Amino acid sequence: MTTHDQPVPLTIALPKGRLLPKILEFFESRGIALTFEDRRLVAYDENGRFKAFLVKNNDLPTYVNHGIAGLGVCGSDVLYESGFRFFKLLTFPFGRTRICLAGRKGLGAETYPRHLAVATKLTRFTQDHFHSRGVPVQVIKLEGSVELAPVLGLAPFIVDLVETGETLRANSLEVIEKLGDVTVHLVANPSYYKLNYQSINRIAELLKESGE
Question: What is the pLDDT of residues 49-99, one digit of tens each?
């Protein structure tokens, strides 16, 4: 086989952090083995179908939007915050969680004020959600542990991802209201998809066949 016959691997961005082990396990169970060795941020699967980049979760949509990676695996919360438009090819059966409004214990949804001060990483979602309900909201952007905001008096409320609620309880906070759900998606840069739709569709079907 000549060099010209070699298939060009699809480029895909994967997020560092808690989702990565689940993503790699899921892909491997479908015959796509990716191993990042010696702190390397680039890996190829053994069949030459993928060239994968390991990037910071919040940066992933930017890499896909600019075509550095044609595909990406990302949570719907991060996709929403980015404001970029992608093709969503499938939803994975892992990584599901909730976006919740939380505050000090005893402060229920019926008692919170008509004007909210909220600390969150999810600034775009929070603004859009409460504005759609006609509730004025002051959004304070944080990058670290938003649970500290009510404890230290920065803001009485937070909007954050909640799985078990253990971190909230440890800081005398509780869920006041569920605002939305987060799911994990395989997404594609629209231009990249149009150029590689056959290869991408084959991979998407492979993942779907044994998937949810």
Answer: 899 999 999 999 999 999 999 999 999 999 999 999 999 999 999 999 999
Alpha-carbon distances, residue 16 vs 36, 55, 79, 152, 202 (angstroms): 11, 6, 15, 29, 25
Mind listing the pLDDT tens digit for each residue in 125-150?
999 999 999 999 999 999 999 999 99
Backbone angles phi, psi at 191, to 5 degrees: -65, -40
d(CA 135, CA 13): 37
Domain spanning 97-181: CATH superfamily: Periplasmic binding protein-like II (3.40.190.10)
Instruction: With H, G, I as helix, E, B as strand and everything else as coil, classify residue 101.
Output: strand
The residues pairing with 50 across neighbouring beta strands, listed in sequence order, are 10
Q: What CATH fold (topology level) applies to the domain 3-95+183-209?
A: D-Maltodextrin-Binding Protein; domain 2 (3.40.190)
85 touches 191 (CB < 8 A): no
pTM: 0.88
What is the distance between the alpha carbons of residues 121 and 75, in angstroms, rounded to a whole number? 14
Cα–Cα distance measured from residue 135 to residue 4, given in angstroms and rounded to the nearest whole number: 59
